[in-house]
Amino acid sequence: YKFKEEWIMTGHVITQSNNLDRGRVTGGDTNVTGRYRYNDIFSMAWLSHIISAVVETGVPDALGDEPMSADDLAKPGGLHAPTLHRVLRALEANGIFERKKDGRYQHNDLSRQLRKDHPFSWAGMARMWGHDVTSLSWQQVGKNLKNGKSGIENATGKTLYDYLHEDLGAAQAFAGAMDSNSAHASGEIARVFPFNKYSSVTDLGGGIGTMLAM
C-alpha cells in the first residue's frame, strides 16, 4: 500500500521524511503503535553500536568532501564492503550520512560530527559508548536494581575511577568522551566568563584540560 510520502497500514500512518522521525507509526490502535514504539527503542540500541563501529573503523574520517561508494570507503580500513554498505544504509535511514541516486555516500551535518577533526566532534563519545566495558556495565541493570551498585561495579568489581586507573584503553576512551562532550560548553564558557578578572584559575576534575585550554 505504498503512496508517495506515506504508507497506510491497518489504519495507521507511517510517515516518511528527512528527519529522525521517519518510519514512525502514528494514530490508530495504541496497542499497535506501542509495539512499534518499543521496536524503535530497541532498534536504537542497535544503531548506537553501528555508530560506534563506523567511528572506531575510521569511516567518517575516510569520507571527505566528495561522495564515495561503500567499496571505496571500505578499502582504507580493510573492511567488508557489502557489510559496510548495509551499515551505511541503516545510518542514512536515520539521518546520518546521505545516499546519492548512484549509491555513493556523502556527509551531512550529523555525520560530519563523527569526524575527529570536527570542532564539536562526537567521535570520542561514540568510542566510549561502544567500549566493551560500557556495554558490559549496561547489561548489569537487573543486578543494579537488586544491590544498588553501579553497572561498572557489578561488571568489574571496581568503581569507575578505580577501573579506569587499571585499564588504559578505557581511560583514554573516557577522557576522549569527556573532551568531546565538553568542547562546545567550554568554548561558550571561555567566551562569556570574565576570566581576566582573576590572577589564577583552577579547574578541579578537569580531565585532560579542555576547559583551561579554551
Distance between the termini: 55 Å
Order of helices and strands: EEEHHHHEEHHHHHHHH
SS summary, helix count: 12
Instruction: Please compute the radius of gyration using only Cα atoms.
Output: 21 Å
* Largest sheet properties: 3 strands, antiparallel
Using DSSP, what is the number of strands? 5
Percent of residues in helices: 55-70%
Strand composition percent: 5-15%
Global geometry? globular
Low-confidence stretches: 1-20
How would you classify the helix and strand content by structural class? mainly alpha
Can you give the mean pLDDT? 86
Biggest sheet, strands in spatial order?
1-2-3
Keywords:
3-stranded antiparallel beta sheet; 214 residues; disordered N terminus; two-stranded antiparallel sheet; mainly alpha; 5 strands
How would you explain this protein's 3D organization?
With 214 residues, the chain is mainly α. 56% of the residues lie in helices and 7% in strands. It has 12 helices and 5 strands. A 3-stranded antiparallel sheet has the order 1-2-3. It has a two-stranded antiparallel ribbon with strand order 4-5. Helix 1 (30-56) crosses helix 6 (123-130), helix 6 (123-130) packs antiparallel against helix 11 (168-192) and helix 10 packs across helix 11. Mean pLDDT is 86; it is low at 1-20.
